[in-house]
Design a protein that fits this description.
The protein has 464 residues and is mainly beta. β20 and β21 form a beta hairpin.
Amino acid sequence: MKSWIVKILGAMSLTCLLAAAACSSDDGPAVESGALPEDVPASVYEDFRVSFPNAENVRWSVADGYAVVTFTRPETRSAAGETSVWYELKDAQKKMQCRTIAFEALPEAVRAAFAESEYGADAADATAGLLIRYTAGTVENIYVLRVTTTGDSAETTKTTLYYTVDGVLVKLTAEVVYDGSYADLDPDYRDWLPRTSPEGVAEFVSRNYPRAEYLYIYEGRELTKVKILDGRQARLLLFDAAGNWLSTQTQLHADELPEEILAAFRASDYADRRIDSVEEYLTADDEHYYVLTVKDRSGKQEIRIDEDGTLDDGGDWNTPGRPGDGEQEDPAGGLSEAEVDAFIRERYPEATVVSRSQDDKELEVKLSANGAKIEVRFELRSQGYLWTESEWDLEIRDAAAVPAPVQATIDASYAGYRLTFLKYVESASGENYYEAGLKSEHLKQTVKVKMDEQGGVLAEYGNR
């Protein structure tokens, strides 16, 4: 049996430190105070000045339709005390703020829910994060806790938990790290920016869950995932590309299980195990069942119990929103977990896996290959994993690693700028490109340039 040690990260130093980049890539263009982006409306600057009059160390960036400002306050000058605010450019309105807070400042309901969870040890002196959203009709505050779980082996699991003010756990992401020497990674907060629900989705939600509030919306190529808070129940709804409802997954507590489901569990071979989590599923195929994760000294096991009490512990059922471990119904629609590993071994035979990070919309596998860092990303579809892109972090200290077309474009069009980072992105669409971060030696301005493989400029972000 593994002996688990659970600890809260002492400080969420990257919670807001890289928040500007979270709307684009990890190395988005940060523009320092005194070099304000020209395409940001004056009303945004005025709102920021009035809302945060004591802001210091102000840095602006523009990406993906948002202006993001990151700053410190006199009482929290350290990186761990940074705050970031997102303004949407199309309406010049403030949409979201993220900042670190002391663990003791968490609402009592959040602290109690966390203490009762399997991650709740050693939390007395921890700090946490707070997301504040400003669009009407959404949950206003989301509280973020990040924990690290280490077992007897070198494998380490890092988990991010998201709670409402009432202590409802509405999202959980986990990353398995194999060598225990990972860098602290910033959570991706793009999901939490308020979005307008697609028309068909909005109609379905309003008809079936009229009191629900939107938590986040993810629109993929083949699948739209919508997380809502219906009273105190978090539900994940799946819709196909045409907006047709596919399934609803609801997180439950064990004491919320119907008596007939509990009776089936108590009569099973798993009755002596502890119920770790429960998910209820309703599907467009008129299926209604429950997936129970049960735990004992030998580990965790998922079992499915249908509405009529039929129990299945084979694990080869197709669970909406999560790829199964068994054979997929539509092999062309996605990869199984084993096929993902085979895909990586075939495509990057010299690479070793550094970490795996997964939530309910994508899987990211970090690799190391002859000193190069590669992030391989897969979208989660109803039938499995779909490779979307691989991002190479190129070593710019080695001049030979900078492709000649890229260097030629920098020399010709960005004289006086030095290269701060360079990434190469392999896309499933075949539209591969480079992203170069450049900084002016004299003006202290930064710019990010997207180029094709011939060095042609596709896009430029920032101000110069």
